[in-house]
Write a structure and sequence with these properties.
The protein is of the alpha+beta class. The protein folds into four domains: 188 residues, Rossmann fold, CATH 3.40.50.620; 70 residues, Methionyl-trna Synthetase, domain 2, CATH 2.170.220.10; 134 residues, Isoleucyl-tRNA Synthetase, Domain 1 (Orthogonal Bundle), CATH 1.10.730.10; 103 residues, Nucleic acid-binding proteins (OB fold (Dihydrolipoamide Acetyltransferase, E2P)), CATH 2.40.50. Helix 4 crosses helix 8 and helix 13 runs antiparallel to helix 16. The longest helix has 31 residues. The radius of gyration is 29 Å and the shape is globular.
Length: 677
């Protein structure tokens, strides 16, 4: 394995149109903070960069709704996010922003170099245009009726009632969200990065050279590459962002997906004059920490940009996490179904480490996981208080009681003494191996195993029963217990740094070197300890009930707004139900609809005929996954035209807990044309 001289760590830039929530923390920021703190503890040359992503359509929409400027919006949330990160102990070397002059110059120069090298292609496309407002419309600025569920307030990119991903052209009766007028299609010119040109390089670099990447990352990259990459627009018609730096590009800005990752480079420029050493020297190990929704941008798009530019290193790893759900439901900012970091810090003062611990212990490293307030309470009370805090407190209090707070001398060791100390010594290598493999949950468990070993040691030796008859044995037991406690203070620092600092203060030492972890002589005989205090305290039912009540209130608001599962519709007669002709059908052919991201053209055998259905499921199923599959189809739905194709019917789909669409299929194969009812 290659040895690197230095590390460059990046974390996904949080979008500055709202605060940070626990899903962001568990997916990106706590794992990267653990990794960086560990590297620093080992004395590595490491730079960790992040910052606010401050361009794009959602920010302009929020500004319009609030009657302020986009700059006002990003200034507000940049401060909220930055302050909350700092209070949680997220230890960036720099937290920058993409509205900075340095970033504007860096992104503009990056685009211009690629443009001058001929790395882009120019294309004319048709886009909705608001003639009253005299501007092109991004998908979020278009509303209409969802073709899937009939919601009349669907956006041009998604229906928030049924969760279906849409194209603006899918909407029935589309209207401009700016003026309310009916938009028209108008041609516009944009620049595209031809990802297909970079496909051979990406196949070799990812599929051949990085098989060690996490399965979710490797698998998603392989799926995209196997489906074939397409050119991707790097500009758009908008007045908020970095202007496209070429003639004839008035009113166009760099697309936020192109602009944002360059923010890592500009942040490093702001941090150090030696920025090129971290971005262009092959002896630098670059790691991107992201959530799974950003895998394609960081593994396929950004590397293609860097490769096209030339001179830059590529990421050594992209350890993306899955999603964290909340109380059994996916986190949603639009529905306020979230635990916001700044609100948590206000509601639970001094308990930063409890949140850090719980989110790491329950991190969605290999699959989506769920955060519940009862689990939060249980992990605090049963693990942090009853295991870690209990051991530390007993070791320090007993030393204060029997030896006036001074580290006693260690006598002859028993086999049990050696066994316990060997366990603690072995924890160092285990924690290191897990952290370097980005398995932070396992590393945290190994840290807690040190406390478990200490608890077992004190429980089995019972020094409080021995002092009267054998004070020398008690001195040995407490000496070893204090050495274990000192090792704990080292192991805790990457995970729960506030508690680690409090513990080192109680031990009466400065922060200890990582290399001392597991040693049996960290604290010298006669060393005076500080005053013992409780590391953690219990969280009562009342505090948790208040958080659950807050979520219930959000659920009630969402139900009133139509965001929660709709109540049962009014009753219909059996005759009304009989009018619906739902049949088992088989998908014979499937292909993507040209110039769309979400539509598939499906040829269906309904048992009564073969027909075409256009379905907006391309982001949930590849054509190959569908061919031969039996599905349920509403066959007597009135035909409608989508992208020039007459669609006759509707495939029945449901949304799983992750928001993905799943086809409704019979439990076992049945004859095509069989009626459902």
């Amino acid at each position: 394995m290659k040895q690197f001289k230095r590390y460059l760590i990046t974390s996904a830039l949080p979008y500055a149109n709202g605060p940070v929530h626990i899903g962001h923390l568990a997916g990106v920021y706590i794992p990267s903070d653990i990794y960086v703190r560990y590297l620093r503890g080992r004395g590595a040359d490491v730079k960790w960069v992040c910052g606010s992503d401050e361009h794009g359509v959602p920010i302009t929409i929020k500004a319009r709704k609030e009657g302020v400027t986009p700059q006002d919006v990003v200034d507000k949330y940049n401060k909220i996010i930055k302050d909350a990160f700092q209070e949680l102990g997220i230890s960036f070397d720099i937290y920058s922003r993409t509205s900075s002059p340095t970033h504007a110059a860096t992104a503009s120069d990056f685009f211009r170099l690629l443009y001058d090298k001929g790395e882009f292609i120019e294309q004319e496309t048709e886009q909705f245009y608001d003639e009253e407002a005299s501007q092109f419309l991004a998908d979020r600025y278009i509303t209409g009726t969802c073709p899937h569920c009939g919601n009349e307030r669907a956006y041009g990119d998604q229906c928030e009632a049924c969760g279906t991903t849409l194209n603006a052209t899918d909407l029935i009766n589309p209207k401009s969200a700016i003026s309310g007028s009916v938009p028209v299609m108008r041609k516009t010119k944009h620049w595209f990065l031809p990802l297909d040109k970079h496909e051979p390089f990406l196949r070799q670099w990812i599929l051949d050279q990085h098989k060690e990447w996490k399965p979710n990352v490797y698998g998603q990259c392989k799926s995209w590459l196997d489906a074939g990459l397409q050119p991707r627009a790097v500009s758009r018609d908008l007045n908020w962002g970095i202007p496209v730096p070429v003639e004839g590009a008035e009113g166009k800005v760099l697309y936020v997906w192109f602009d944002a990752p360059i923010g890592y480079i500009s942040a490093t420029k702001e941090l150090t004059d030696d920025w090129e050493k971290y971005w262009k020297d092959p002896d630098t190990k670059m790691v991107h920490f992201i959530g799974k929704d950003n895998i394609v941008f960081h593994c396929i798009v950004f590397p293609s940009m860097l490769k096209a530019h030339g001179g830059y290193i590529l990421p050594d790893n992209v350890p993306a996490n899955e999603f964290l759900n909340l109380e059994g439901d996916k986190i949603s900012t639009s529905r306020n179904w979230a635990v916001w970091l700044h609100e948590y810090l206000a509601d639970f003062p001094g308990k930063q480490d409890v949140l850090r611990y719980v989110l790491c212990a329950n991190a969605p490293e290999t699959k989506d996981n769920d955060f519940t307030w009862r689990d939060f309470q249980a992990r605090n009370n049963n693990e942090l208080v009853a295991i870690l805090g209990n051991f530390v407190n007993r070791a320090l209090v007993l030393t204060t009681k029997y030896f006036d707070g001074k580290v006693p001398a260690c006598g002859e060791l028993t086999d049990f003494d050696r066994e316990i100390m060997a366990q603690v010594a072995a924890s160092k290598g285990a924690i290191e191996s897990f952290i370097e493999a980005y398995r932070f949950r396992d590393a945290l468990r190994e840290m807690m195993n040190i406390a478990r070993a200490g608890n077992k040691y004190l429980a089995d030796t019972e020094p409080w029963k021995l002092f009267k008859d054998d004070p020398a044995r008690v001195a040995t037991i407490l000496n070893l217990s204090l050495q274990i406690t000192a090792s704990l203070s080292i192991a805790m620092e990457p995970f729960i740094p506030f508690s680690a600092a409090k513990l080192t203060s109680m031990l009466g030492v400065d922060r200890l070197s990582w290399e001392r972890l597991g040693a049996a002589d960290i604290l010298s005989v006669g060393h005076l300890l500080g005053k013992p205090e409780l590391l953690f305290d219990k969280i009562d039912d009342e505090a948790v009930d208040a958080q659950l009540a807050k979520l219930e209130a959000a659920k009630a608001i969402n139900a009133a707004a139509g965001y929660e599962p709709a109540p049962q519709k009014e009753s219909i007669s059996y005759d009304d139900f009989q009018k619906m002709d739902i049949r088992i059908a088989r998908i014979l052919e499937a292909e993507k609809v040209a110039k769309t991201k979400k539509l598939l053209k499906l040829t269906i055998d309904t048992g009564i005929d073969k027909r075409v259905i256009v379905s907006g499921i391309a982001e949930h199923y590849s054509p190959e996954q569908l061919i031969g599959k039996q599905v349920l189809v509403l066959v007597n739905l009135l035909p409608r035209e989508l992208k020039g194709i007459t669609s006759q019917g509707m495939i029945l789909m449901v949304e799983d807990h992750n928001g993905a669409l799943v086809a409704v299929s019979p439990e076992k194969e049945v004859k095509e044309g069989t009626m459902v009812g």
